[in-house]
């Protein structure tokens, strides 16, 4: 057993079109090795693996998730890491939809795998990919406890008025249709980090967290408990995202079906993959979008304005829902790196006690930091998210607190 890997957690995020993994120390947060498998099922797949000071990259056909995971295991072994002998205390699996079954990290056994499979109807792109990740990892590492950490779990506290869609109750109950929320691991981690940064007890804080990546979501958190979030039954609801439309009149779906003769699959594709910033401006990467805005591209400007407008709407709604807010935190790729979005989404709110300081907002840093002015009643922060570390900690905690972890 290597001393450096002893006590570490292997975090596996087997997603719909890519797989990420990371060997991480839950106490120090040190990343000991990490990898990305992408373009699964496309003509040219790619595996990138970082370990110690080295890096490996392979471009080859990766027909499916199982093949990708097997290739990753081979690269890890070939570069000298024996996962079975590394002293890993748990494998933490990022699982997307826990429905109304899973609210806490759980040891994964056959019954849990079956439940996650059953929940696939709620997350058809994600849960089946999650299950394959679990099956391959359990077969490869049968003597290590496997722990599932659910993206929906943090939002199980949503009060009924926030979790309920105003549709026929019987239909909703029969089909499990309610607002579940996603990115929960990030919202929980970031809100805890924000409290720690401010040196405050999380129980005393009203917080808004804006997780702005390719996928984007907002949450309202009171005393550490989520009371609302922008994503719903699926990750399609809420903010404008890289390729997803966010909030839309459901009548648009009916209209597209009835008048544009689009089938369910085509509408799914349109709203999930060809909408949002990409639908409006043709690009989904925010850096490219801002370059286009700078060049005077009108479609890009409209996409940016729609994105900011929606974001401000959610900030306003959550300010009222919380009855006042102590801290607003930006996180994820766009939130951590894009000062324009942070400035514009909170501009002109001095009357509400929210003032972003230009210099602080424009300064580059990868650490947690305050960007509000000294006179701002509301603290505005940038806090890097780290879902892998949060999953590693949750898995290690469960294993540590369990007298007899199931394997
Ligand atoms: P996800 O995890 O949802 O795939 P990320 O949190 O990695 O997404 O965020 C990806 C987004 O962050 C992309 O739109 C990317 O352009 C944006 N981004 C990353 N770095 C920067 C940067 N330095 N400036 C502006 N945007 C950035």
Please describe the structure with a list of short key phrases separated by commas or semicolons.
alpha/beta; Nucleotidyltransferase, domain 5; 15 helices; six-stranded mixed sheet; 407 residues; eight-stranded mixed sheet; globular; 2 domains
User: What fraction of residues sit in β-strands?
Assistant: 15-25%
- The SS-based structural class is alpha/beta
| Major sheet details | 8 strands, mixed
| CATH-assigned homologous superfamily of the largest domain | ATPase, nucleotide binding domain
Q: How many helical elements? A: 15
- Measure the end-to-end span: 20 Å
Number of strands: 14
Report the average pLDDT across residues. 94
What radius of gyration results from the CA coordinates? 21 Å
Describe this entry's structure for a reader:
Strands 5-4-3-2-1-6-8-7 form an 8-stranded mixed sheet, with helices on both faces. The protein has a 6-stranded mixed sheet with strand order 11-10-9-12-14-13, sandwiched between helices. It has helices at residues 65-78, 110-118, 127-140, 160-163, 169-175, 184-198, 250-259, 264-273, 276-281, 286-294, 298-322, 332-337, 339-345, 358-362, 387-401; strands at residues 9-14, 18-24, 31-38, 45-51, 54-60, 90-95, 106-107, 146-150, 206-212, 216-222, 225-229, 327-331, 369-370, 379-382. The protein has 15 helices and 14 strands. A hairpin with a 2-residue loop joins strand 10 (216-222) and strand 11. Helix 10 crosses helix 11. The model has no long low-confidence stretch (mean pLDDT 94). It is of the alpha/beta class and 407 residues long. It folds into 2 domains: 9-150, 2-Layer Sandwich (Nucleotidyltransferase, domain 5), CATH 3.30.420.40; 200-382, ATPase, nucleotide binding domain (Nucleotidyltransferase, domain 5, 2-Layer Sandwich). Helices cover 38% and strands 19% of the residues. Adenosine-5'-diphosphate (ADP) is lined by residues 213-215, 242, 285-287, 332-334, 337-338.
